[in-house]
Amino acid sequence: MARDVFISYSHADHDCAFAIVGRLEASGISVWIAPRDIAPAGDWAAEIIEAISAARIMVLVFSAHSNGSPQVRREVERAVHKNVPVLPFRIEHVVPEKSLEYFLSAQQWLDAFPPPVEPYLEKLVSNLANILAAPASATVARPVTQPVTPSTPTASFAPADLQALERQLAQHIGPLARLLVARAAGRSSDWSHLTERLAGEIDSPAARQQFLRAAHGLIRLRA
């Protein structure tokens, strides 16, 4: 189910993140947060991807813990890739590491220190209410995905080839590669179509080309 806000946070900031959730939901703002909203026996990566894509905005609980968290970095990357705005809620005086600085440098920030965090929550609610009052199309510009038409048969790919492709993609986007390769394989008509789909998940043009070269090399090696 789509929610207004996706909360990205480090597990070390659990109490603060859930204090934010409680205040937002009390104000009528719907929130998605892990692990609360992951279905029992659900695919963690798949549900996080879907929740980020469906959200109108991501609130990043930014601290020294989240600054160094690979999972938080991947979530922010996915939000930016899907054109979901990110609102950093900074609970410590921390400068973003280079891996996050690229994605957050142009974002609006809300500082929420020194503690306690509660006095800053009203400002967060007010900012989110203003953002969410705008039409959804003005808040999130969704990329258009071209589906495979029914007349285009999907190809059958060898499991070993898909595993090799997953390893290549994982170098650029992390563990989400497994889910994305599995989904794209069922919607692609040939290897070139498949690799182009997956390359679109990589933000950096240079990294995208690197992935495509490696992916095409896999087929040449097999041949």
Write the layout of secondary structure elements.
Elements: E1 5-8, H1 14-26, E2 31-32, H2 44-54, E3 57-62, H3 64-67, H4 70-81, E4 86-90, H5 98-104, E5 110-111, H6 118-133, H7 136-139, H8 159-173, H9 176-185, H10 191-199, H11 205-222
Question: How would you characterize the overall build of this protein?
Answer:
The protein is α/β, with parallel strands linked by helices. It folds into two domains: 135 residues, Rossmann fold, CATH 3.40.50; 64 residues. Helix content is 53%, strand content 9%. Helix 8 packs antiparallel against helix 11. The longest helix has 18 residues.
How do you describe this structure in short?
The chain is an alpha/beta fold.
Defining key terms:
five-stranded parallel β-sheet, 11 helices, 5 strands, single chain, Rossmann fold, 2 domains, alpha/beta, 223 residues
N- to C-terminal separation?
A: 44 Å
* Strand content bin: 5-15%
Category by helix and strand content = alpha/beta
Give Rg in angstroms.
19 Å
| DSSP, total strands | 5
The top-level CATH class of the largest domain is: Alpha Beta
Oligomer classification: single chain
CATH architecture of the largest domain: 3-Layer(aba) Sandwich
Tally of distinct domains: 2
List unreliable stretches of 5+ residues: 139-153
Order of helices and strands: EHEHEHHEHEHHHHHH
Helix content: 40-55%
Principal-axes shape call = elongated
Mean pLDDT: 84
CATH topology-level name of the largest domain = Rossmann fold
Q: Please give the count of helices.
A: 11
Report strand order across the widest sheet. Answer: 2-1-3-4-5
Instruction: State the fourth-level CATH superfamily of the largest domain.
Output: Toll/interleukin-1 receptor homology (TIR) domain
